[in-house]
Amino acid sequence: MFHAPLVIAADGNSARMALSLNIRRREDRPLGVAVRQYYRSPRTHDNYLESHLELWEGKPGASRLLPGYGWIFGVGDGTSNVGLGMLNTTSAFQNTDYKDLLRRWLNGLPPEWGYTEENATGPVRGGALPMAFNRAPHYRDGLLLVGDAGGVVNPFNGEGIAYAMESGRLAAEVTVQALARSQGPSRERALQAYPNVLRQRYGGYYTLGRVFVELIGNPTVMRTVTRYGLPRPTLMRFTLKLLANLTDPRGGDALDRLINAMSRLAPAT
Ligand SMILES: Cc1cc2nc3c(=O)[nH]c(=O)nc-3n(C[C@H](O)[C@H](O)[C@H](O)COP(=O)(O)OP(=O)(O)OC[C@H]3O[C@@H](n4cnc5c(N)ncnc54)[C@H](O)[C@@H]3O)c2cc1C
């Protein structure tokens, strides 16, 4: 048996520590699924990430466009990391065979890229993407949740690494403040600040992200934005900044200021 005055749970999406305190997943928050595989490929030295927005439920063009995207990035060691992620804002979510979806998408790519079974260097691996604070409260009874354990994946793009690291830093800062106080109400108040710090940092932006995932869960919206939005450079610059969370917080250009203002105005819940 181990005892500690505070525990920082960084145990990922399994969230065993949180579950032991009965802190459950919030059903009103989005969840994603991602699968990926490595392939030997001539594209291993690509120095950019390529995104494919067209993932079809059935045959391309003949069925529903799914809310998600495929990615390809060069690893530089002879392989590419190729995968896809999808949101639970569509009825297809529960019934999708993700390995099959990956294979069908890859079958439609140029064969010279090498994303075929014989070039795979390992099995398909996958996991859940817990988004937009989908587990809360982030502090209770001496336990702080960081990263996937606290569901801090960005709902716009499914990225969770930077957010896991940053929530870890925020939790560490709060912990240092708290442990400087003597045990009791004063320390407890310091620890209670952690969920507020997280909300201030991401709350408004994640609220916008939740609206976004609801919208793209509608196949008509998804089709319209990919067909009419993609060819418009200014709209795409705006979309890239918003989806990748790449705005300059100190001002930047008009697009940065617009997105920062939207994030500030959106309720941080
Ligand atoms: C296929 C896929 C692709 C992804 N691609 C990207 C991407 O390109 N960019 C990006 O930003 N994010 C990506 N993500 C999301 C990202 O991987 C996660 O958000 C991120 O790893 C979360 O970090 P974490 O430290 O909170 O949890 P994890 O990385 O899951 O780490 C938790 C660790 O705790 C360990 N653990 C759990 N329980 C116990 C226990 N009881 N005892 C001991 N150890 C335990 C686990 O073994 C694990 O090592 C992807 C996710 C998937 C599934």
UniProtKB/TrEMBL annotation:
Protein known as: Geranylgeranyl reductase
PANTHER family documented for this protein: CONDITIONED MEDIUM FACTOR RECEPTOR 1 (PTHR42685:SF22), GERANYLGERANYL DIPHOSPHATE REDUCTASE (PTHR42685)
Matching SUPFAM superfamilies: FAD/NAD(P)-binding domain (SSF51905)
Native source species: Candidatus Protofrankia californiensis
Domain of life the protein comes from: Bacteria
